[in-house]
């Protein structure tokens, strides 16, 4: 299983909303579904989401290079 998180409105950034929401969702999933692992795939340029994953104790398992093309760059 893989999960993601999107907070489009910049006014919601930096207010711990993503951290709280993701922590609640992970707690629910692990309590209700027999899962040994949940993936959290994020774009390497999204430092906010990287920090949320680190804060919640997630570990980096892989990097997939040249997947996202943005502003004429991979």
TrEMBL record:
Domain N-acetyltransferase: start-end pairs: 3-58
MF-aspect GO terms: acyltransferase activity, transferring groups other than amino-acyl groups
Protein's recorded name: N-acetyltransferase domain-containing protein
Species of the source: Pseudolactococcus hodotermopsidis
């Amino acid at each position: 299983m893989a999960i993601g998180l999107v907070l489009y409105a910049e006014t919601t950034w930096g207010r711990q909303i993503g951290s709280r929401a993701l922590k609640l969702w992970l707690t629910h999933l692990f309590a209700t579904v027999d899962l040994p692992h949940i993936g959290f795939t994020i774009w390497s340029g999204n430092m906010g989401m990287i920090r949320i994953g680190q804060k919640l104790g997630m570990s980096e398992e892989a990097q997939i290079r040249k997947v996202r093309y943005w502003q004429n760059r991979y």
